[in-house]
Amino acid sequence: MPDTDDHQLYQRAVAVMPGGSTRSTLFVAPHPPYAVSGKGAEITDVNGHVVIDCNNNYTSLIHGHADPEILQIVSEVAAEGTAFGLPTRYEVEMAETLRARTDGIEQWRFCNSGTEAVMMLIRAARAYTGRDVIVRFAGSYHGTYDAVVSPQAQGVPAAVSETIVEVPQGDIDAVEQALIHHRGRVAAVLIDLMPNRAGLVPARVDDVARLADLTREHGALLAVDEVITFRLEHGGLHTRYGLNPDLISLGKVIGGGFAVGAIGGRAEILSSFSPLSDGAVAWGGTFSANPVTMAAGLAALRRFSPSAVRELNDRGEALRTRLRDNGVDANGSGSLIRLIDDNPRALWWKLYEAGVLTGTNGLLALSTAMTDEHLDAIGDAVITVRNQMSD
Ligand code: PMP
User: Fold this and answer.
1) What spacing in Å lies between the alpha carbon of 87 and ligand 1's midpoint?
2) CA 28 → CA 9, 20, 25, 182, distances in Å?
């Protein structure tokens, strides 16, 4: 595969961006290929190489690329203006849609990324409880806000780290100990019910039930980060657990391919953001809830009905079963699959060359744009590459 164009672009990138990259999460050494276009389930790169897209912009493109219906709606809405210093009806419709899908999470606020959603969620929890400490699980990724990156990360003030308690992944005893040790100081326990970076293994039902009891008992909020997992059920993965989170963060699929984030929660918790309330938490966001994003997201979600969610999950289960039956270590649930490998970079490149784009840590996210032929080809490529690598 010739890489001259890639190489030239990367040389230019290195001169103007650190490491030639503006998204560390998608960097693969020596440098990633550059995308040119996407249509449905496929992407063409600058070298003319075509791949089946199992990355789907890190799980966010539920209907693949350049979906005709979403494009149509986006062009109609954009033709009327892309952003206003006034609210539009689209944000109201989106909040109503999310409330209906989540079985009544009462109030919503929008922003432009999952990182920003988690940031707002933590602010809301602290404002409502009047407490500072956030308990979260090591190994779960929640974006790049100070409070959710590694306490050892450069650039995070010690004062921030002092308000964070990181417990081992899935260790509910450690959560209980933290709640006892920091009695009266824990604002929220933050959980991703199927954390990608930690291996994409769904949380155990009894652990989640115990977590809900513990948070209630200690007056801490239960905050569920559904930025990735919302796609797994019509109302998000928490509905599978029968859970009523106090706060939830969303992103990715609810933007229909555009930059988005959202938080939802009980009205009394989100009331801190109300411009009508005393001591309101000031929160604007120049492009928050812009009509293009909201309309694209509404169009994407409309087509992601309970039966469409189920169908995509079933196809994911079938692919995962096929992979496991052929000796491939594959975690996940429904439409999200994680390949477990000691050498994710080599696996990424070999799969890319074989025509399949994954996340850099082996994550595959299916889209409704995939045909049975695509799914067969993905399975063939993964099985062949894994066999080659273990030879
Ligand atoms: N939370 C989770 C669970 C995520 O997976 C991510 C990003 N992959 C984020 C938050 C941050 O979202 P964003 O990249 O949109 O800032």
Assistant:
1) 25
2) 15, 11, 9, 40
